[in-house]
Amino acid sequence: MATKKYTVTLPEELAEEIRAEVGPGAFSAYVTRAIERQREHDRLGELVAWMQEKDGPLTEEEQAAADAELRDIERWFEERESGGGGHEAAAA
Asked: Which domain of life, per UniProt (predicted)?
């Protein structure tokens, strides 16, 4: 994928925490992954809103299943970001 340099303003303390954790060479990759995750989250929110408009609100059982799936997805992302793979959690 082609890349382009952008200027982004971040809180200094946050940026320095991230840089200290991932190192200066991985900072852009970390920010890219964070933005990708936020976009996926936003798209899922749009899908949920559309589905609720079309079919009505979730039942308690549907909400419990959705919460469990969200935990699995979050675990998968955590494992992915830590380099642990995580295919098992996504397939469960």
From this structure: Bacteria
